[in-house]
Specification:
The complex is a heterotrimer of chains A (about 350), B (about 300) and C (about 550).
Chain A lengths: L18 H7 L4 H30 L4 H6 L5 H11 L5 H13 L13 H36 L4 H15 L2 H15 L14 H7 L3 H40 L2 H9 L3 H31 L1 H6 L5 H10 L3 H29 L1 H4 L2
Helix pairs in contact in A: 2-15, 6-7, 6-10, 6-12, 7-10, 8-10, 10-12, 12-15, 14-15
Chain B lengths: L1 H9 L1 H23 L18 E5 L2 E6 L10 H37 L1 H16 L4 H10 L2 H11 L5 H12 L2 H14 L3 H8 L4 H12 L1 H24 L11 H8 L7 H29 L8
Antiparallel strand pairs in B: 1-2
Helix pairs in contact in B: 2-3, 2-13, 3-4, 3-7, 3-8, 3-11, 3-13, 4-8, 5-7, 9-10, 11-12, 11-13, 12-13
Chain C lengths: L1 H15 L4 H4 L15 E6 L14 H8 L6 E3 L5 E3 L2 E6 L5 E6 L13 H12 L17 H5 L9 E5 L2 E5 L7 H4 L10 H6 L14 E7 L3 E6 L12 E6 L3 H9 L5 E3 L5 H6 L1 H5 L1 E2 L2 E10 L10 H10 L2 H8 L4 E3 L22 H10 L11 E5 L3 H16 L4 E5 L2 H10 L4 E7 L6 H8 L16 H12 L3 H18 L2 E8 L2 E3 L3 E2 L21 E2 L2
Parallel strand pairs in C: 1-10, 15-16, 15-17
Antiparallel strand pairs in C: 2-3, 4-5, 5-7, 6-7, 8-9, 9-10, 11-19, 12-19, 13-17, 13-18, 14-18, 20-21
The chains are: A mainly alpha (about 350), B mainly alpha (about 300), C alpha+beta (about 550).
Chain lengths: ~350, ~300, ~550
């Protein structure tokens, strides 16, 4: 869900770092120092995230013990369960215990599913990751092309149409688009599967009845990625297109481009080779940012296409007051978000010489 | 001022944007007079009728369901029109809250700097690290408790009490971008001469911030605000679609999409029209915001 | 350059992959690969099971899967007749207190161990064992000594007697005619002591039973896979694999059925028109009016519904049920007129139910003390997230509004929703009740007796001493005619008092693929769970 304009996450080194750290790190070259300081800065953020989440969930009157016991609730047994899960302790103690367990790598057990949170969410996370990668590839490929075309021939019909489509892309409600695509291409035309991540039936029998590996792979896995992938890709595609266009326009207006053209280089070479390289720099950050947001916020697409991913699992867990899953999920999501942003900033720092030596 | 309007009218996209926004606002304010039926009235004899169905009483055409009816026999057009009211209300109020918090934090961080800046930016990062709507969803799970809703019914009038939850949840989670941008602006502005001059003549901090700094951020505030309204309207629809926002039978675009979803193959008008309305409204705000940005502050263009 | 290399590598990988047998394997008469139908039954479930441990089963989904893994001493068929299962014969004493079961000697657990009387006694004792904390522990209340064991006073349940290696005797502390039916419930499935004690907490995730299907794997929120038990003591299943596909959205289940990915599915009300109009799909409907109650309950412990039968009757008359049946449910439900359903013994066929009569409703409202709805506190109707429930609720809300009663809707997720209802906090709520066994007791006793407030079954918390007395007597009555009279009298009282806003009996209408044969849908089934349908008798025939 990215309609909101966010400037790239440029975190300057903390103004007043702990003197010890600085002293030790003072000997490191600028880039690794930047990386380590960023990672350290991320820890309070993670703690803050889990703290907010914990506070809000605790304020909710839902009682997980009652919900899990459902029918035939028994006071004695409920008390036992409560003690076992530590729900009878004060709030701060519970939070402290949670942090302690996390430090040891244990995210707890789901109340409802009775599996380890890390195992349960790990699978879901991988599913979301796959979908996000596909969506991102589509978004980057089409977005870049659209932006380049727009910038190379500005104020032409192509430019106006593409940019209007781009604005449409960030305006259209993602779930509505998903529903419409599902309605036409899956329900009415039957070209693509309606939902799910893989073939619903037995893979063995599908294998037996297929005529080629490609056909098997497509029916079993590939075709399921198309509609959700396109749906999820729409918003980042539009954002990338717009950004590419403005970035390219800025670069194309610079002197060295004019020089290259004056030298007689073809327009295509100028655009693709000379301008694009430099225009890409700010785009990388946005690609990274969008990737992280997609990864962690694809709730609506997952709901429409019944994709067994992290977003949906989180919404279910929140509705059922499955605290460990919610806390674990938030931790994973925030962690991934911070990590991806960090990587992006490092890459940005690496390729933009101004930052590297600044 | 006149130049401003000339510039706006010259930009065709922005013009389209203004028209859509004005239409949406008009519908939101005047839906009582514009809608042909009561959005909650159930016409049992006409459930699930396609658009253009005529109401036939004693062989006389009494009315028409321009966009068809849903499975409960309610007129889709009326519900779409009333849905505009909810969407715009949530959009505007949540954005106002976003701006309030964002400007406050941004100016304080930028102006005072030092440890306050570091702390506030850490807090901003923390809220920013919550993916997409997740914090809003968690907040809504708490705020949508029946006890809370009961308590709010008296204050809500004819609106669904869930709207307060949306105000709070969206208001408290969307301010991070605004805070960052404002902070950047303030950082630049505070080095300006007029600020020095103000300090020289003895203006207190509050006065400098309120009178000199914030009004000079007018351009980004307006642009960000407009885009934020678009974002909040989409978020409200998404949350209602997930069942966390406006509850039935109140008419909301997201809610209609959620209710109409199982009937998409048999009664597509139920789901298609609210989505269309939503897309057009958000498009309007986005185009308008784009246009404003082109005119007021091209510097903001790069990062969106 | 690098790009082309990558492309080549990708192509090689693809070509190097094993070819599926369909491509160059067996060919049929006309050179086409033979399409042997896989012997796999893909069974949809609307939710993830909570547990596969018999002691922990309370919902129809967990029950559906477990039903295929375990056996009980006896079972009932689609006509409500008792048949032997693990017990090859049984006898009930004259006074109705002693039940004797002789077990078959050829029953084995899935891990190979033989089933003996010890296992039966162990399984039943578990239900009252406080360390197991079974939510269905009250089912054992009829057995002598259950309470003593639960409170720790004795080390074994007195009423569970091992006569010899293959004979078990159950002694009740008072006669209870439906008990033989109660024993058919999956909660009384026989489990192997060794396997349970090896992993008590994890048994629900890795069950071992005696049934026609063996547990293979369970991917949460995705599927549960069971394999056929070739050593089953009954007729082994015709199919090899039973895969439960967990698909939460009803429309998705339907789409999957249409594309051939499921062997059966329920008909979502939103698709009923499409199904009826489609000549092919129309042929595939199986099922009949089921004993699955869908109605709204009044909290009879709190005002304004407390002690105000007239008010409750007014609500009953105010709702236009036919409208909901036609427009929302597409004819998939039938109007409820009694508590004990049609087809069940002692059914009260003369009942007219509460016909739609808004004028009478307004009059009753007036007599109840709230003329035109004045003076009524705010009423909140609690429902869960299902889309059809929301539509029904809005129709009911409108009907009530027309007589002057304003009701506000509260939508909550199922778990928290149940909690509110069981706690007695919900004032006016929607619920469903599927009978547990084919005896009127499950409707009259479990649902309406004052013993069972809250999660035991009587969620409306309605109490009427005369009703209680009649039902108590009927339970110990051994003469069927007299029993019927008692139940009918009790039901009339309950009907007059109207603790529920009676709406519908759901239909177990199920779409079944044309090649699926031998699927017997029981009237006690909810679809798509089809708890009582013996899947081991299903076979495929093109």
């Amino acid at each position: 869900m990215t309609g909101s304009p966010q400037p790239p996450h440029q975190e300057p080194a903390p103004r007043v770092p702990a003197w010890r750290m600085l002293w030790r790190l003072g000997f490191l070259p600028p880039l690794p120092r930047y990386a380590i300081l960023r990672i350290l800065a991320a820890i309070p953020v993670m703690i803050g995230v889990t703290f907010i989440c914990f506070t809000v969930m605790s304020a909710a009157p839902g009682d997980p013990v009652r919900i899990v016991m459902g029918q035939h609730y028994d006071q004695e047994i409920a008390d036992q369960l409560r003690a076992r899960w530590g729900l009878d302790r004060p709030f701060i103690v519970q939070y402290g215990r949670f942090l302690g367990r996390v430090a040891q790598g244990d995210l707890g057990r789901s109340y409802v599913k009775r599996t380890d949170v890390s195992e349960y969410l790990g699978d879901k996370f991988v599913n979301t990751l796959l979908l996000t990668l596909v969506a991102m590839c589509i978004a980057v490929a089409l977005g870049l092309v659209a932006g380049i075309v727009s910038a190379a021939w500005p104020r032409t019909a192509a430019d106006y149409i593409l940019m209007l489509l781009a604005v449409g892309g960030i305006s259209i409600p993602v779930f509505w688009l998903g529903l419409m695509l599902q309605l036409y291409f899956a329900s009415k035309l039957g070209w693509l599967p309606v939902s799910d991540m893989s073939y619903s039936g037995s893979l063995e029998s599908l294998w037996r009845n297929s005529t080629s590996y490609v056909q098997y792979w497509w029916t079993a896995y590939g075709s399921h990625f198309v509609l959700p992938g396109i749906t999820l890709a729409t918003v980042p595609m539009a954002i990338i297109a717009r950004l590419t266009r403005s970035s390219m326009l800025e670069v194309l207006g610079l002197d060295y481009i004019k020089t290259a053209r004056a030298k007689g280089l073809s327009y295509r070479r100028v655009v693709l080779v000379h301008a694009l390289k430099n225009a890409l720099i700010p785009i990388i950050t946005v690609i990274g940012n969008n990737f992280a947001v997609l990864l962690t916020g694809a709730v609506l697409t997952e709901t429409v296409f019944a994709w067994p991913g992290l977003g949906r699992a989180m919404v279910d867990a929140i509705n059922q007051y499955d605290y460990p899953v919610v806390m674990g999920g938030v931790l994973i999501m925030a962690g991934v978000f911070v990590l991806v942003n960090l990587v992006v900033d490092l890459v940005y720092g690496f390729i933009d010489p101004r930052v590297r030596y600044g | 001022m006149a130049e401003f309007w000339k510039a706006v009218l010259g930009n065709r996209a922005a013009l389209l944007g203004i028209i859509l926004v004005a239409a949406a606002l008009l519908v939101a304010l005047a839906c009582q007079w514009l809608s042909p039926f009561d959005p909650n009235a159930q016409y049992r004899a006409y459930t699930g009728q396609p658009p253009g169905t005529l109401i036939d009483e004693d062989d006389a055409i009494v009315g028409e369901f321009r966009l068809g009816t849903d499975a409960n026999g309610r007129d889709v057009l009326s519900r779409v029109l009333y849905g505009a009211r909810i969407s715009l209300l949530v959009g505007v109020v949540a954005t106002a809250l976003n701006l309030l918090i964002g400007i406050l934090i941004g100016t304080l961080a930028g102006y005072f700097g030092g440890w306050l800046d570091a702390v506030l930016m850490r807090v901003t990062d923390t809220f920013f690290a919550f993916p997409g709507m997740l914090l809003a969803i968690i907040l809504l799970a708490t705020l949508n408790q029946p006890e809370v809703r009961s308590a709010l019914v008296s204050v809500s009038g004819k609106l669904d009490p869930g709207i307060w939850g949306l105000f709070i949840a969206l208001g408290l989670t969307g301010w991070t971008g605004i805070a960052r941008v404002i902070r950047g602006q303030v950082l630049t502005l505070k080095e300006e001469e007029f600020v020095e001059a103000a300090r020289a003549i003895g203006c207190g901090h509050t006065r400098i911030i309120a009178v000199h700094l914030v009004p000079n951020c007018f351009a980004p505030i307006i642009v960000l605000g407009t885009m934020q309204i678009a974002y909040n309207i989409l978020s409200e629809a998404g949350l209602s679609f997930l069942g966390l926002g406006i509850q039935p039978p109140a008419a909301s675009w997201g809610g209609m999409l959620s209710e109409g979803r199982p009937y998409l193959t048999s009664m597509p008008w139920w789901g298609v029209f609210p989505g269309l309305a939503l897309a057009l409204t958000v498009l309007g705000f986005n185009l308008f915001g784009d246009g404003l940005r082109d005119i007021l502050d091209p510097r903001l263009k790069v990062r969106s | 350059m690098r790009f082309t290399v990558l492309l080549l590598i990708a192509a090689l990988l693809f070509c190097g992959c094993p070819q599926p047998p369909g491509g160059n394997g067996q060919t049929g008469d006309n050179g086409q690969p033979s399409q042997a139908r896989a012997q796999e039954y893909r069974f949809p479930l609307p939710d993830d099971p909570l547990s596969l441990d018999p002691a922990q089963i309370t919902d129809t989904v967990s029950d559906s899967v477990s039903r295929r893994i375990y056996n009980t001493l006896v079972k009932f068929d689609q006509y409500g007749q008792i048949h032997p299962d693990i017990a090859e014969w049984h006898s009930i004493s004259e006074d109705g207190l002693e039940y004797k079961f002789k077990l078959r000697e050829d029953v084995r657990f899935h891990d190979g161990a033989q089933v003996t009387a010890d296992d039966v006694i162990y399984s039943y004792t578990r239900l009252v064992d406080p360390s197991v904390a079974s939510p269905r522990t009250n089912l054992m209340d009829y057995v002598l000594g259950a309470g003593a064991f639960r409170s720790g006073e004795s080390t074994a349940v007195e009423g569970l007697v091992k006569v010899d290696e293959f004979t078990v005797k159950l002694i009740l502390d008072r006669p209870y005619s439906p008990f033989i039916y109660v024993l058919c419930m999956t909660n009384f499935g026989v489990v192997p002591r060794a396997a349970v004690e090896r992993d008590p907490d994890g048994f629900g995730d890795h069950p071992v039973g005696t049934g026609p299907f063996v547990f293979d794997s369970w991917q949460k929120d995705d599927r549960v896979i069971l394999k056929a038990n070739r050593d089953y003591f009954g007729t082994p299943p015709h199919i090899e694999t039973l895969t439960f596909r967990i698909i939460k959205d009803e429309k998705t289940r339907f789409e999957n059925f249409k594309s051939g990915a499921l062997e059966h599915c329920d008909i979502p009300p939103s698709q009923i028109k499409e199904v009826r109009n489609d000549p092919e799909l129309n042929q595939l409907i199986m099922g009949e009016p089921a004993m699955d109650m869908y109605c709204y309950g009044f909290n009879c412990e709190q005002p304004p519904f407390k002690d105000n039968a007239l008010l409750r009757q007014a609500f009953n008359h105010a709702v236009d049920k036919q409208n909901i049946i036609d427009n929302i449910w597409g004819g998939l439900v039938s109007r409820q007129k009694t508590f004990v359903p049609e087809g069940m013994m002692y059914f009260w066929s003369e009942s007219e139910g509460y016909p739609y009569n808004p004028d009478l409703a307004a009059e009753l409202l007036d007599r109840a003390g709230y003329p035109e709805g004045e003076g009524l506190p705010e009423l909140v109707l609690n429902i869960d997230l299902q889309p059809t429930n929301k539509l029904v609720a809005q129709a009911v809300q409108e009907d009530l509004r027309r007589i002057g009663v304003n009701v506000r809707l509260e939508v909550t997720a199922w778990g928290p929703f149940l909690q509110k209802v069981y706690d007695g906090e919900a004032l006016f709520f929607q619920n469903t009740w599927l009978g547990d066994y084919p005896d009127p007791d499950t409707w009259l006793y479990q649902l309406l007796h004052s013993d069972n407030f809250g999660e035991a079954g009587n969620i409306t918390r309605w109490a009427n001493s005369e009703f209680d007395h009649l039902v108590n007597q009927a339970q110990i009555e051994t003469d069927p005619t007299r029993r019927g009279e008692l139940y009918n009298m009790a039901e009339k009282i309950a009907f007059e008092e109207a603790p529920w806003l009676m709406l519908f009996w759901k239909n177990s209408a199920t779409l079944v693929q044309p090649y699926v044969k031998g699927l017997k849908i029981n009237r006690m089934d909810r679809t798509p769970q089809l708890n009582n349908a013996p899947i081991e008798e299903v076979y495929f025939e093109d």
